[in-house]
Amino acid sequence: MFLAxxxxxxxxxxxxxxxxAFFKALLFLGxxxxxxxxxxEQDIRKMGGLWDKIPNTAKRLGSPTLAxxxxxxxxxxxxxxxxxxxxxxxIVLYGSSVSSPRLRLYMARFFFDIFGYCRATSTREHIQxxxxxxxxxx
Length: 138
Known about the structure:
Strand content: under 5%
Number of domains: 1
Number of strands: 0
Helix content: 55-70%
Number of helices: 8
Radius of gyration: 17 Å
Structural class: mainly alpha
Order of helices and strands: HHHHHHHH
Shape: elongated
């Protein structure tokens, strides 16, 4: 996004900045919700299988995960596409095109480590329910 601003593609840079800010904020809110549900536990290796316990959080965390990975039809796809449409940026981004598949892999790992297969059964017994006030605020 700063490369876009540097070469004069201000609309594309600001568009990506805004979309990135919104889905990153949603990811942080979702992470806080998961940490709350896990009674303050922040070790992702002790999580898993939370889809059954906190389905609203799982559903609300899915969209920003797909958006930050640049999956169509989410906003991240369009903002990244807009940035790569500028001719000077396309040349520079061609060399760094390896980072996008890696980003998709670690975002998928993040989501499935939390909501997928449960590896630690002891932590699942102490799940705190997410209150409706937390859902409304997020």
